[in-house]
Amino acid sequence: MVDTLARNVLLDVEQAIVLFEELLLVNNGANTPRSILSVVVHKLCEEELGHVLEIVRFLRRYYQCRTEHTEQRVHTLLVGVEELLSYLNALVPCIPRTGCLLLVYGLVDEALAGGAEFLDLEESVQRVANLKLSLECVVKDVTSAIAQPMADDDRHSLAALFEQISSELLKRLVDEAYADCAEGLPHVCDFVEHLPCIDHQIIACQVLYRRMNMDTGRLRVGATVLAYRIRKVMRYTDFARAKHAGEMRKLKLKLPEGVYAITWGYVNIAGAQFMAPKPKSERIGELKCKPAGWIETCSKTAKHELQTDDRGKSFAIKNTHTGLFLTDVEGAFCYVETTPPDRWTVEVIKRGEDVWYKITNRRTGNSLVPAGEVRVGIDDQCDGFNLVDFNERSLVVVQKFELQRKKAACSVQ
Known about the structure:
Blueprint: H1 2-11, H2 13-25, H3 33-47, H4 52-64, H5 70-88, H6 95-113, H7 122-146, H8 152-160, H9 167-180, H10 185-193, H11 198-213, H12 216-234, H13 245-254, H14 257-264, E1 268-270, E2 274-277, E3 282-284, E4 287-295, E5 304-307, E6 316-319, E7 325-329, E8 332-336, E9 344-351, E10 354-361, E11 375-380, E12 383-392, E13 395-402, E14 411-412
Antiparallel strand pairs: 1-11, 2-4, 3-4, 4-8, 5-6, 7-8, 9-10, 11-12, 12-13, 13-14
């Protein structure tokens, strides 16, 4: 019957609970929760370590059953946790083991947080508190792992276990991972992508934005990376059915306006005039190119698209009219058919209510600032963004504007 119980733990939790109760009554109660659960844990975990997820689901559901036998439910939960820890602690440290320990930690944390039923069971309260304390190091192990490079298989297997992790624990893990390793944002975002629940991905993005918005240094280098993660989540076919879809739409609008437009719109670069490729090609050294020129009006020839193939860490700047890419040759900006094109980083610099951008060529280290007063605008069909108040090399501030078709100039709100 224990083999049948193990199979039902995987396939039918409710039936497994009924069978577990029956096993406890066999032979006048000679079977104990520990003897039964020890066999189930070893059988399922030796088949596949990922079955810890189903065992945790079973223990949680059994504990949540509203029966009169409170003490038995609490005792079964603690025995199950102890048997899982006994098995897992005997394994060689690895990412799957760490993820399974996190599942156990989450179960203990939930039980202790909703511990009204423990009030009359002082000994059980102490047992569960000791179990949680012994597992605290697992949280540190997980946060460290998700903020570092990880093999795809390990990332996928770890993220899959988060199906049984509470939203509150997820928030803590993502926040601590990013707080402890500011450079780990791309790795955290890669991990978030593998979370099996869209709502968990949305919650993780909210946590990252909140932490980023508290630290201008993190915002400076991480805003575009987070923006592209948000964009990808919102492109899921079932995004509209997510519980927190509305919150994600609001989060998108909270991004710095320039980051929003770089991610979802088009860019123009302007001083007194707008930068665009000159009509005729020229040679700079051995390179055939179209030098950057200046036009009076913001026509389609001045429109640029920022393309990324590394999830928002750097961009190729493409003129959408000619299909040519912006590059830096001997300190001069020009447009070429380079393959692959130069990559540019976009840093977001927040000062008070103003948001500035520094766009730098990765190859040369030169920033996108020609001589004289420079503005960079970002077009998004009829609405866009205009950069004003240039007063420091390589830095420009962005404000929203509405394109007035009847006027030659844009009015700044």
